[in-house]
From TrEMBL:
It comes from Fluviispira multicolorata. One of its GO terms (molecular function) is [acyl-carrier-protein] S-malonyltransferase activity. Pfam families: Acyl_transf_1. This is Malonyl CoA-acyl carrier protein transacylase. The active site is at 92, 202. Belongs to the fabD family. Its EC number is 2.3.1.39. The keyword Transferase applies. GO terms for biological process: fatty acid biosynthetic process.
């Protein structure tokens, strides 16, 4: 088996029913969700499996739910496969899961942190003021320039997710985001469409949330860890000596450099196997769009997880 890299998903990977089949097959998965329920005083199984109150897509619930499913899945793998990844990475929220996997954050602390993170992000900008849009096309290198042309001190738009060379996400003031979409269409640079989100995540408008997060994280321990992680904010490889809480604070109001993160991983280990740990298949798709020959494994349902366990056991 080649070197292994663990990737942890962020918001957008959640679906009602996620983890249910796996929970029925693996006791440690079920126990992890119970642990999450106790930490947050919510019924995590009900939230993920049934979502009767339609809360799963509300960011303060989305974030801990995805983290809980990711860590539950990780524990299933750890119990059955003796594999140590050469490094880990997580997309936005997923960076918290990655830190838990390294032992840098305690699971219960991470759950409370991401729930607070979601609440702070929602508080930062009044509903209706901000917006986000997805861009798909072959002129991604021109989009940051268009955002700069449009932006003013009072009305900003910026690229906040570099997901793959042809897939970006814009965020900022609603009017500026919509104007950027119009410009992209007018100049025939691809397609840009507003996303159904409640806040302009990862834009500089999120700075109030970053300030709140700084205070919250001051009360949480960042443990010494022995592994390596590629951070969203700079796409650099970090060890316990260089990774700080400030990295997580900056992340809230900074772009997710995921394409650059994948490039760094590929530079370090071009033949590694990338394992997406948690719900969905988003990160596998982005990896293959960025590097056509990327070798990816998933864990999003029981059959896929079983195949991944078999592959990693060889």
């Amino acid at each position: 088996m080649s070197d292994i890299v663990f990737m942890f998903p962020g918001q957008g990977s959640q679906t009602v029913g996620m983890g249910k089949e796996i929970s029925e097959q693996f006791q440690e998965f079920k126990e992890t969700l119970c642990e999450a329920s106790d930490a947050l005083s919510i019924n995590m199984e009900q939230l993920c499996f049934e979502d009767p109150e339609a809360k799963l897509n509300l960011t303060e619930f989305t974030q801990p739910a995805i983290l809980a499913i990711s860590i539950a899945t990780l524990r299933v793998l750890q119990k059955r496969v003796g594999v140590n990844p050469i490094l880990v990475a997580g997309h936005s929220l997923g960076e918290y899961s990655a830190l838990v996997s390294l032992g840098a954050l305690n699971f219960s602390d991470a759950l409370r942190a991401v729930r607070f993170r979601g609440q702070a992000m929602q508080r930062a900008v009044p509903v209706g003021v901000g917006a986000m849009a997805a861009y798909i096309g072959s002129s991604g290198d021109l989009i940051p320039g268009i955002c700069k042309e449009i932006s003013t001190l009072e009305n900003t738009v910026e690229v906040v997710n570099f997901n793959s060379p042809g897939q970006l996400v814009l965020s900022g003031h609603k009017s500026a985001v919509l104007k950027a979409c119009e410009e992209i269409s007018t100049r025939k640079l691809g397609r840009a469409k507003e996303l159904p989100v409640s806040a302009p995540f990862h834009s500089t408008l999120m700075q109030p949330a970053a300030n709140e997060m700084s205070s919250f994280l001051a009360e949480i321990n960042l443990n010494t860890f022995s592994g390596k992680i590629v951070a969203n904010v700079d796409a650099n490889l970090h060890t316990t000596q260089s990774y700080t809480k400030e990295t997580l604070v900056k992340q809230i109001a900074s772009a997710v450099l995921w394409t650059q993160t994948l490039a760094k991983i590929n530079e370090i280990s071009p033949t590694s196997t990338w394992v997406e740990i948690g719900p969905g298949k988003v990160l596998q798709g982005l990896a293959k769009k960025t590097f056509e020959k990327a070798n990816c494994l998933g864990t999003h349902d029981f059959s896929t997880l079983k195949l991944t366990i078999e592959a990693l056991s060889k």
